[in-house]
Automatic annotation (TrEMBL):
<dbReference type="GO" id="GO:0016491">
    <property type="term" value="F:oxidoreductase activity"/>
</dbReference>
<keyword id="KW-0560">Oxidoreductase</keyword>
<dbReference type="InterPro" id="IPR005475">
    <property type="entry name" value="Transketolase-like_Pyr-bd"/>
</dbReference>
<dbReference type="Pfam" id="PF02780">
    <property type="entry name" value="Transketolase_C"/>
</dbReference>
<protein>
    <submittedName>
        <fullName>Alpha-ketoacid dehydrogenase subunit beta</fullName>
    </submittedName>
</protein>
<dbReference type="InterPro" id="IPR033248">
    <property type="entry name" value="Transketolase_C"/>
</dbReference>
<feature type="domain" description="Transketolase-like pyrimidine-binding">
    <location>
        <begin position="3"/>
        <end position="175"/>
    </location>
</feature>
<dbReference type="InterPro" id="IPR029061">
    <property type="entry name" value="THDP-binding"/>
</dbReference>
<dbReference type="InterPro" id="IPR009014">
    <property type="entry name" value="Transketo_C/PFOR_II"/>
</dbReference>
<dbReference type="Pfam" id="PF02779">
    <property type="entry name" value="Transket_pyr"/>
</dbReference>
<keyword id="KW-0786">Thiamine pyrophosphate</keyword>
């Protein structure tokens, strides 16, 4: 018996509803229907009145959640797709993110963002929004890459007094499985060394962690290179201590992300390593993102649009040959 990534998200929400009467779920078709990806399936029956269908207005959804959080509740919002959160952008970045700074009153909302691409999803259902939200002070942005993190980091997100963007990757929902949920004690805000190495470091997060590990395994089998993979886990806050310690061991850095290349998390990591750890580098750092175009519909074009083990290996060979 195994548990999937989306099962872990559902189980975390069930546990939160059980443990804390302030928690409620709010989103489009999440009640009887169970949500677009069935992450709330059955919860409305188990917790009547606390799993609520929203209007088709992300702006109204976030506004209601902010008001309820100010009044003492702990809402969990489900966006059907991360892309649609842009409709509620004003509420998230101008209201939720700034409220504690302006008033001293926290806004403990958690916004679940089904993020990233899947074959055939196209430009309106495949975007990775974490870099945009990480730009704004007052927001916490988490990007779980494992089944256990999907569970534990949602529990921790709801416990925070800060507004949280919980970026769950759709491609991992049913593909990623684990025999059980473990907690290794890493708190929210700390990165994890997913794979140890000594020749180069890949810093990444979310679904790209698994692509990085595949590429690292291939490079070791083919050439003997030992590549370290750092899973950021959260992109805001950013655990630069773990990143710099890894670069100190390896001397080379590739930052990897599925989001668009202009600016963003990968650029931020490169900038900070250059400013805080330039003396640690034996080669110019590289970054690899999806292409700077809208996400294509066709599965073959989508596969060419985003980083893959093949493109990661090409980038790593260039880095290692410097």
């Amino acid at each position: 018996m195994s548990i999937t990534y989306v099962d872990a998200i559902r189980e975390a929400q069930e546990q939160l509803l059980k443990d804390d009467p302030r928690v409620f779920l709010y989103g489009q078709d999440i009640s009887r229907f169970g949500g677009a990806f069935k992450a709330t399936k059955g919860l409305a029956d188990a917790y009547p009145g606390r799993v609520l269908d929203s209007p088709i207005s992300e702006d109204a959804m976030v506004g209601m959640a902010i008001g309820s959080a100010i009044d003492g509740m702990r809402p969990i919002l489900e966006m059907q797709f991360a892309d649609f959160s842009s409709v509620g952008f004003n509420q998230i970045v101008n209201q939720a993110a700034t409220h504690f700074y302006r008033t001293g009153i926290p806004v403990p909302i958690t916004v679940r963002l089904p993020s990233g691409g899947t074959p055939g999803s196209g430009p309106f259902h495949s975007q990775s929004m974490e870099s945009i939200y990480a730009h704004y002070p007052g927001l916490v942005v988490v990007t779980p890459a494992t089944v256990s993190d999907a569970y534990q980091m949602l529990i921790e997100s709801v416990a925070l007094d800060d507004p949280v963007l919980y970026c769950e990757h759709k491609f991992l929902y049913r593909w990623l499985k684990a025999p059980k949920i473990d907690h290794d004690g890493l708190p929210l805000g700390r990165a994890r060394i997913t794979r140890h190495g000594r020749h180069a470091t890949i810093v990444t997060y979310s679904a790209m962690v698994h692509e990085a590990v595949r590429a690292a395994d291939r490079l070791q089998q083919e050439s003997g290179w030992e590549i370290e993979v750092v899973d950021l886990r959260t992109v805001k806050p950013l655990d630069m201590d773990t990143v710099l310690a890894s670069v100190a061991r390896t001397g080379r850095l590739l930052t990897l992300g599925e989001s668009f290349p202009w600016g963003g998390v990968t650029a931020e990591v490169v900038a900070r390593v250059c400013s805080e750890g330039f003396h640690l580098l034996d080669a110019p750092p590289k970054r690899l993102n999806s292409r700077d175009t809208p996400v294509p519909y066709h599965p073959n074009l989508w596969a060419a649009h985003r980083p893959t083990p093949e493109s990661i290996c090409i980038a790593m060979r260039e880095l290692l040959s410097f």
